[in-house]
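Name: Elongation factor P
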Amino acid sequence: MKVIASSLRKGNVLEIDERLYVVLKAENFHPGKGTPTTSVEMRRISDGVKVMERWKTTDQVEKAHVDERSYDYLYNDGEGYHFMEPESYEQVVAPADVIGDQAVYLQEGMRVFLQVFNGVPIAMELPQKMTVEVTETEPVVKGQTASSSYKPAQVDNGLRVMVPPHIGVGTRIVINTTDNSYVERAKD
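Structure predicted for Elongation factor P:
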């Protein structure tokens, strides 16, 4: 299936010269003058080699047909990260290099999208937003409003996030998993 380069996202699987690549990072550049481009960092699935590629945003790229389904995260052990398909209860194990730096987001029972090729997970897509709890931050200053000044905070999965000044320890917040940015205070 052909897609335009600007629509590529982390976790997409591409077929280039009959080889499969998983997208690790995709950025669109729109210079003031000249042609907008999409810069893509990918990992070749067969041998794990990282490749950088740049296309015009309107170029057509071949998206590989892989089985993409939702799975529930179970646990992590020496073998890798274990996931279960909710309808068939079939379990798959994703190696640590497939999960990569997204491992900090995984919580037991969490629903994620896995792309599976020949029974082996090759890429994982997280929900775009996630609720976490602030475990450490500077104290709330009375009378300080939500201005443009943000302060650093540590959340329960170990990430550091910049939060507005009115957020204190124990507050549940929603963060964006693509760039670890604060979205809003959780509504639960």
